[in-house]
Amino acid sequence: MNRYVTLVPIAVLILVGTGVVSQAYAAFTITMETDKGIYDHSSVITVTGQVDPIAEGSEVTFIVQRLNPVGITHIDQISVNSDGSFSTTISTATPTMKYDGTYLINAKYVDAETTVSVELTNAIEASETGTPVTGTAVTGTTGTTVTGPSGES
Known about the structure:
By secondary structure, the protein is an alpha+beta fold. The chain has one helix at about 1-25; strands at about 30-35, 40, 45-50, 60-65, 70-80, 85-90, 100-110, 110-120. The longest helix is centred in the N-terminal third of the chain and has 23 residues, at about 1-25.
């Protein structure tokens, strides 16, 4: 009888250990997208994505990198929702994102990684269809001559 009592806890440990090892070696996937591909320097980039499976206590790590001149412009970590989705925003109105060009948004979750690129430009568009905004340019200033009491300018 004592031999069976000893075998039961060992069997339970083996079963529990197998489940933990299976979770640790699960293939993680991460997908990500941005709301647009081109932004100006006063925009907010909305990043959304999905991870699978969900690892308790793990967060998505973001690193935004500028290609020219090379540099890291933003680092963040966010929690994953219970359904595996995530969302964050990145402001382009920062000193580190002042240059036009390509920016890479890299997201890493456990051992899965993905990258999306966006373009930053000074072009101002009225809508996502690319309709340019027209305005009036000021090219000079006109002043008034002031004459003093004795006639001098």
